[in-house]
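Case study B.
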Amino acid sequence: MHPHQRAMLRATSPAQVLIAPTGAGKTLSGFLPSLVDLIHAPKQGLHTLYISPLKALAADIRRNLQTPVAEMGLDIRIQDRTGDTSAHMRRRQRADPPQILLTTPESLALLLSYPEADKIFASVKRVILDEIHALIDSKRGDQLMLCLARLARLSPQMTRVGLSATVKDPSQIAAYLAPDGGAEIITAPQGPAPDIGILEADIPPPWAGGGGRYGVQAVYDQIKRHRATLIFHNTRANAELFFHELWQANEDTLPIGIHHGALSREARAKVEAAMSEGSLRAIVCTGSLDLGIDWGDVDLVIQIGAPKEVKRLVQRIGRAGHRFDLASKARILPANRFEYLECQAALEAVRDGGLEDDPIRQGGLDVLCQHILICACAGPIAPDGLYAEITTAAPYAGVTRAEFDRALDFCATGGYALRAYDRWQRLVTRPDGTLALRDPRSAARIRQNIGTIIETDRLKVRMAKRRGGAPLGEVEENFAAQLRQGDSFLIGGQIVRYEGMRELVVEVSPSPQKRPKIATFMGTKFATSLQLSDRILARFESGDWSGLPAHIADWLDHQARLSRLPQRDRLLVETYPHEGRAHLCVHGFAGRNAQQTLGLVLTHRMDQLGLAPMGFVANDYATLIWGLDPIADPTPLFAPDLLRAAFEGWLSENAVMKRSFKAVALISGLIERSVNGTKKTGRQAVFSSDILYDTLRKYDSDHILLEMTRRDALRGLVDFGRIDEMLTRAGGRIDHIALPRVSPFAAPLLLEAGRIPVHSSADQRLLEEEAAKFLPQAALGHG
Amino acid sequence: MQVHLDFQFGMERLLATPQGALYWPQADVLIVSDLHLGKSERMARHGAGLLPPYDTPETLARLSEEIVTYDPAVVICLGDSFDDLEAARNLSPYLARRLGPIQAGRKWIWILGNHDAGPVNLSGEHLDEFEAPPFILRHIARTDLPEGQFEISGHYHPKMRVALRGRSLSRPAFLMDTNRLIVPAFGAYTGGIWADDHAFAGLLGADAVAIVLGQPPVMIPLKR
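Model:
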């Protein structure tokens, strides 16, 4: 037994945090005290509740626990309960709960919505929150903490246990788990330092792009030299393309699989099973394998592209050499030259233990609204008691009574300036002051919408019926909309041809084509963390290029000579003509989302000043804007109050805000995930959340949902915080360098994908172009 | 300033407005469909969420704009004007107040739909269908349309997805072939059915086009 496992057995505090690297027997450590207790004092009823962010992990741990328990002849019932559990089993668990229940935050929230929740949870002695570090900065974490506050009321004697990977500041995790203090922190010793480095290919990385396909051969050589390799990508599209290329390089036909969140459950389960059996040599994957089942055989991790956060890199490195006493081995393949610097910074950060902070976030009010409705499903709620309860959850400790009352009012009446729903309130006040569902049948609808994970609109993809109808995965609706019959695309590593849509399912057939015309999904784009940006800037300031290959060192020297290198306490803005257009490049190092927002806001500002911007493109390090007129002095563009005003006014009409609104509307219970709108010919006619957003802005601009949307967007997709940080850092010291031609640092942006045209009238113009193509034909039939 | 699309159907000249109404200059008729007034109220009543209760004022404001623009002698609502009869009853004092001024001096025809298949206490004629040669107007398109008839209907809330240089645009649309014209929903929270849905397969011929709403609306072939 490890020392930290003994420490867990001895711990007596009502809240305990175990900080341990992967492979240290973290999960088992969490269960040991439960098993000991159940052996010494066997009792029926729910004793231990285990919550994991991954469904698969819950099932896997159940198997890992059941085997030794059965071998020891112990009579302890251990069951899991997730979205995959049968309805029959779930009903039985509610009537007769097992002693140890393994579940997810969403399934726990659902359980708490039943009137019998108080009976089910009254006996709980111990709740174990696994991988708690992975939830701390998310709405899933908000929900879990609200559920934990409720559990603590149902079962005051309960001990809360948090299991976390190595973090920068364990006391943050402790404060998250038990805001009133007093959590005991147990730290497992770190394993040996990992063997990490950059994977150098024969050719230098390209100037731009994110796929790392130039390194396919180098990666393949590594796979051949190791037992089992995990190859991580940041996006699904890149994983698909890389897998495709890797397969073409696979002259020994090694067994290599692909795994990501948009593949069908069947496809993922197949790859996971093959890996468990040790019959795969490599898996090309995304964040879908960041957490999860331990595969002892993995002896190498390759990260393709910069990891964007040190935490993510550490997590992924830990997936190799999943044994405590063995050093993990990992290599990073930078996708382009800027990323080379970022990868170096990340490796350096891993070596000196510099992780990003895990600050406790301010909980989302949309999640609070959902929680209020969940509580109302279980029984009438007393506002005073519920307010006291939710403020014991760390993310909600700062919620004022006025904010809570607004959330409660939203749940009850919709919270509109026009009090339209007096007769049809969702919650009605009873004579004793408690609030109850007006229509008990609405509980079923509320339960169907529990959860905070919002998938972008996706459509299922499957082989056409005559080809067996096998499910392959999903693509984004936007992508599907652009497919024409005969187009081919990549999914799950195979090239398929689009055949048509049938009842909102994309039907495909195998395609003999070698080169797919189009890649798949957009996927999430991570932004480079503040700490990594800082390290890159610090490197520029040091002027020390040791350890950098010649092609990078030359590039930096060129930039220093022809323009200058960006600095932490200044803002470098370059202007130059290129291909007949005036260009402006802002080297802000504020991360992709903030640089993108900066592009939106600056072009809007330039438009107001009559500077005719035509478009922009952004990456993690800079924003490049082009237009008709050269900018003589860019300094006035960066006045912080002007930027903020542009945000408040114009950006609120932006698609980014509408995306944030949709998530808020779904989570808060304004709209429903599945059953909404009117039924037409058996299908759903779903109205668009964009229309609700526009209507609210027009008629009720102070509505609580708009406030939530603004808050989410500012810290999420818009990331105004990083723009603020960048401007504060620069403190008005803006270095404008006018150049005769593009600078070495700005050049990669010319190749960057995702150029955004600035045209408010673009849609109409493109529509008419499209119509003009067909006009002669159309006129024949109807003219 | 509204910019409409001028087109021909059943040998008559019609205008498709950017908001999804239809104006027939020759007869001075304005046609709208699927207003679904009272939708947010009906959803609240059924415990299906408390949507912003502004859809009815919003729809009526847009309808008023169309009426001010075209000043038609006749207004025809192609059915599902009310999300259900109870919504119509609950809203009727409000509606009478708001509709009164725009109904004054015009002939107003309410065609019954599947959502509002019954008498409603509002002025105007209430009909199952209405013949205005060469057109027959009804809520739901008939699958057995007699040869040579020109039908204008609503019900389906058609919308269209168009891919334009890497981005995709989705908007309500009129669908039309030689004999049939299906009008999009005019109501604010009405959603819709994609034009490529098989619901339209038995209704529209191979020559069908979509008129996608825009400033002005734009005609695009349905099958490409």
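Confidence is low (pLDDT under 50) at residues 519-523, 675-685, 777-783 of chain A. The remaining cases will be described in the next quarterly update.
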